[in-house]
Amino acid sequence: MRLARVVSQTRLARICWRAGGPVALAALGLVLGLAPPGNAEKSGAAPLALDADASARPWVRYHGWPTRDSAQFNSLAALASPPAPAGPRKLDRPLTGDAAKGRVLVADRTRGGSCLACHVMGPAGNADLPGNVGPDLSEIGKAGRDDAWLFNYVYDARAYNPDTLMPPWGTNGIFNEAEIGDIVAFLKTLTTPAQYHDVLDDPAKRPTPVEKRDNLDSMVNPGMWAVEDKAPALWALPGPNGPACATCHRQPAQAFEAWAAAMPKWEPRLDKVLGVEEFVTRHAKATTGHVWLMQSEENTALAVYLRFLANGGTIDVDTQSAPAKAAYGRGEALSTRKVGQLNFACVDCHSPQRGANKWIRGQWLAQMRGQLDHFPTWRTSQQAIWDIRKRFQWCQVAIWANELPPHAKEYGDLELYLTAQSNGLKLNVPGIRH
Amino acid sequence: MAERPRLKVPKEAKKGEVIEIKTLISHAMESGLRKDDSGTLVPRKIINRFTCEFNGKAVFACDLEPGMAANPYFQFTVKVEESGTFRFSWTDDDGTVVTADEAITVT
Questions:
Q1: Labelling A33: which of A53, A54, A239, B7 has CA 20 to 30 A away?
Q2: pTM to 2 decimal places
Q3: Minimal Cα distance from A63: which residue of B?
Q4: Above 0.85 for ipTM, yes or no?
């Protein structure tokens, strides 16, 4: 009897979604005197609002972020960067750079972190905490390189090495030719190995960061406030259409103990990959009528909550179905696309074959596997919860590229690819990171 | 005003035991020294006093100054001799006081 009633409610729900959504369902439920379905998560494809963007349109960059417009360089959605040179340029006159000026330029943090971000540069450089993504240049001055080689290598290293990680400082307009001449003059003065003041200065010996705090203790991690306070309140809040999340999902802890571990997922109705955040926006709109756009406080709180409920579950996103496989392939391709004025691809910094597990200045570059197990995460440096889409956006702005809106389909493909790198790991949300 | 405070107080203790109490309240602790984008000072608004009483008797109290970080967190120890109730209170610059109670059984 009980089973029959559940089945009939489920069928009814499906019919009603076709007939006109939650209002029709609520009306029918009233007419027939039925209790609203309490286990809606088992009733087939979830209703989604399909008609609008899931984040603010037009997208406006966050307050306080750099305002630089990088439209003349590649983004994850468009190609625009100047091409690589065919080969090294001939210098038509001898270089007359000023080594003292060059010494300042190599440490200029306003120029994409500059040389010391990636290179140890001997006892000089006016800065501590050098990185080690690139080779140690402490003795480059006695390496037997002529002015033209050094100039071209700094101007655009692709002239010699198409696979280089180094930004094309000259081609992409970060340093002008006179400045590159100054840098070359400085490089020629480097002839002695680096002397470190202490172990922290030496990127080969600097201890790698380890996060050991109890991230599920709300005394330790303010990200847990979303789980303990904000999300349960939102869950019970009736929307303009009448129902609340809790109307259909009465026991979220049981119902969602695995759901988020399989997200993001290909969504045929939208022809894109949906992560938890965009799903929340579209599903809440279609059912409760709540407008919880991506990156709103409500959306982030619910995304943290839903992923928290799947904590301990093994991350297992679909990469095998045909559309998922295609999305994974697109995500993988995007991860190798050079973007921004600094001309970096995701893999340049986050593949162990390239820059991952090394230092950019004092910042540790993490590899892709092991990222999506703790997002959304509390960021101590920002005093805020960031989901993975916001992290993508910041990665791009930081390499002088224009970010995409959080709902961009390119981010969906990238999120699927990146999450798949963590398949087999256990969810542990919200994390704590710098 | 602040959201609900977080408390960690043991539910039970032995007579004469020294217990550890942790409290945290989320609050921006606006120092009054910061300027907004237009260059005008953001007015000071902080929790300026925190107290803890046990059965009506003060066991811990302190004044807070504008240098305190957001979300002030306290951890302190109390020797308990009898069952009763801790009352915690946080006083905001705007005059509002948030209170929270936590009972403990002492055997």
A1: A239
A2: 0.87
A3: B37
A4: no
